[in-house]
Amino acid sequence: MVALRIALRYLFSRKSHNAVNIISWISVAGVAVATAAIVCVLSVFNGFSDVAMSRLSAVDPDIKIVPAAGKSFADGDSLAAALAALPQFQAAVPTVEERALAIYAGRQLPVTVKGVPDNYGTVIDLAPTVIDGELMDSDGDYPCAALSVGVAVSLGAHPGYYDPLYLYVPRRNGRVNVANPAASFMADTLLVSAVYEVEQTEHDADRAVVPLSVMRSLLEYTTEASAIELKIAPGVSTDQALAAASEAVGSRGVALSRLMQQSESFRMISVEKWLTFVMLIFILVIASFNVISTMSMLIIEKKDNIATLRALGASPSTVSGVFLMEGWLISLLGGVSGIVIGVILCLAQQYGGFIKLGGDPSQLNITEYPVKILPGDLLVVLMLVAVVGFVIGLIASRISSARSVDNATNLQ
After folding, report:
1. What is the per-residue DSSP string for 227-259?
2. Spatial distance between the Cα atoms of 42 and 373, rounded to a whole number of angstroms
3. Who has greater pLDDT, 13 or 386?
4. In the chain, is it the N or the C terminus that has fewer CB atoms within a 10 Å radius of its CB?
5. What pairs with residue 368 in β-bridges?
6. For 63-119, what is each residue's pLDDT tens digit?
7. 395 CA to centre of own chain
C-alpha cells in the first residue's frame, strides 16, 4: 500500500526542521505515558480482585443454597440430607442466619447471628480462625457462642465465665404487647467460648456463631433453614456441583458458588475499575491531541512533497491516506511502547513490591500494591489506542486534504 509505505518513511526519516522531530517524539511519549498509566491502573484493580478471591475460602462454603423466595426452607433438614446423599457433595448442613440484638455486660450491639449444627466442621472448619478461647457447642447447661473480633471488641467480651451473652430477636408470631414490650422478643442466654477473625471486614465486624438449636428456638423454627451449605466432593468441579445442586432444589432455591456469594464485593471492584478506565480514556485522548499538532507541523514541512505527489497524479484521497496512516502509526507506536512500559512496571511491582501501601504494616494483610496483568486488558487497551489513533489520523488527513487542494491551486 503506497500510502502506508510513505507514512512509514515519514515516521522514521529525519525532518529538515529539528523542532518537528522533537514534537513528534513528544507526541509518542505522551501517548505512551497515558497508555502505561491505563495498563498499571487496570493491573492494580486486577490484583485487588485476586487478593479478595484468595480470601474467600475462610468462612464461605463451596456451595450455598438460598431460598428463591422467602427467608427459609420449610424442610431444611430433609433437604440437606438429600443433598448430602448426592455423589457430588462430601457434606451438606442446614444453617439459620438472622439479625439479633446482643447484650454483654450492659453493652448492646446489633449483630448477625448464624446458627450451625454440630457437624458444621465437615463443611467449614472455623478452628483455624479462632484467636482466643475454644469452639464449643455448650458448656454445662449453657449453649456457647463464638464471636467475631469486631463484636468482641465492641462488647468488651472475653471467652470464659465473666458475663453471659444475651441474644434478643423479635417474635415471629403473635401480637406486640405494648404494656410489656419485653414479651415481644425471644431471648436466650449463652456463654462466650471463642473469638475468631477471618480478616474480612464483612465477617469480622458484626458476626456471631451459635448452635443451630439456639437460632431455631429464637426464631420459633422446627426444621426450617435459611440456607444449605455444602462441601464439594474431591475431584468434582464447581460447575458440576452447581449443576447438581440446582437440579436437586429446582425452583425452590438458588445455588451460589464462593464467587457468587461475594458478588457485591467483586461488582464494586469491577465498577471502580472500569470507571477509572473511562476517566483515563479522556487523559489518553488529550495526550493524543498532541499528534494533531505534530501532523500540522509535518504537513507544513511536507508541502512540497504534497505538491509533487499531486503533480505526479496522486489523488487527494491518496495524500489524505498518507497522513491518516502517519497519525495512526504515531499513536500505535506510542500505545505499544506504553503497553510494554506498563507491563514492565507491573512485573517489577509484582516481583519486587517497590510501591508500598500506606499505613502501619503490622495492621495490614498486604504491604504492597498487588498487581495482576490480564491479556484481555492489554488487548482492550491496544484496541482503544488504535481507535483513538485512527480518529486523530482522520482529523489530520482532513487538514492535509485541504492543504493539497491549496497547493494544487497554486501550481495551476
Report:
1. EEEEEEPTT--HHHHHHHHHHHHGGGEEEEEHH
2. 8
3. 386
4. C
5. 356
6. 999 999 888 999 999 999 999 999 999 999 999 999 999 999 989 999 999 999 999
7. 37
**Number of alpha helices (DSSP H) and beta strands (DSSP E) in the chain:** 12, 11
pLDDT by residue (tens digit) across 153-177? 999 998 988 889 999 998 877 666 6
Distance (Å, whole) CA 1 – CA 6: 9
pLDDT of residue 310: 65
Contact between 343 and 39 under an 8 Å Cβ cutoff? The reply is yes
Cell numbers at residue 179, please? Answer: 404494656
Per-residue model confidence as pLDDT tens digits over 382-411: 998 888 888 877 776 676 555 544 544 454
Q: Which of 105, 87, 113 is nearest to 207 (CA)?
A: 113
Cα 324 to Cα 245: distance, rounded to the nearest angstrom: 57
Cα–Cα distance measured from residue 133 to residue 149, given in angstroms and rounded to the nearest whole number: 12
Residue corresponding to grid cell 440446582? 246
pLDDT of 411 reads 42
First to last CA, the chain: 29
Predicted local confidence at residue 408, as pLDDT: 45
Q: Which of 335, 354, 338, 349 is nearest to 392 (CA)?
A: 335
Q: How far is CA 268 from the centre of its chain?
A: 6
Per the CB < 8 A criterion, the answer to whether 301 and 20 are in contact is: yes
Taking all residues of the chain, what is their mean pLDDT, rounded to a whole number? 82
What pLDDT sits at residue 88?
93
Q: How far apart are CA 124 and CA 228, in angstroms?
A: 12
Q: Are strands 138-139 and 253-257 parallel, antiparallel or unpaired?
A: unpaired
The distance from CA 289 to its chain's CA centroid, rounded to whole angstroms, is 32
| pTM value surpassing 0.70 | no
Its sign, for the CA torsion 49, 52, 54, 59, is: negative
Q: Are 196 and 126 in contact (CB under 8 A)?
A: yes
In angstroms, rounded to a whole number, what is the distance separating the alpha carbons of residues 341 and 362?
A: 32
